[in-house]
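INFO batch 0412 | record 1 of 1 | parsing
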Amino acid sequence: VQLQASGGGLVQAGGSLRLSCLASGFTLRYYGVGWFRQAPGKEREGVSCLSSSDDETYYADSVKGRFTVSRNNAERMVYLQMDGLKPEDTAIYYCAARIGGTIHLCRQDAYGYWGQGTQVTVSS
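INFO prediction complete | emitting tokens
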């Protein structure tokens, strides 16, 4: 089982980035997926999660209306479109997956498979 996140980078405030996560070694369509982030000096937090059937989503209050999570099971990809980026969005972003299909309140302890993280830096 492997998750590989990409798409991070340096962007000015107000800009956009699209994070991608390639899943391999398992059948993505049976898994709930999520994006989590960890800023310097802070604990890792759930950003957005999506159920296997796309009928259940979670967004942290801080990103609602700005971020959009999506998936393409055929291509084994999970995406996080981030618009209206703010300096406080600066963090390492991780994709994760959990068997069972639900998002389980986007609690990170419910996600057993993790990618390596991609750095997002938003300058003011």
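INFO post-check: The chain has a mean pLDDT of 96.
INFO record closed
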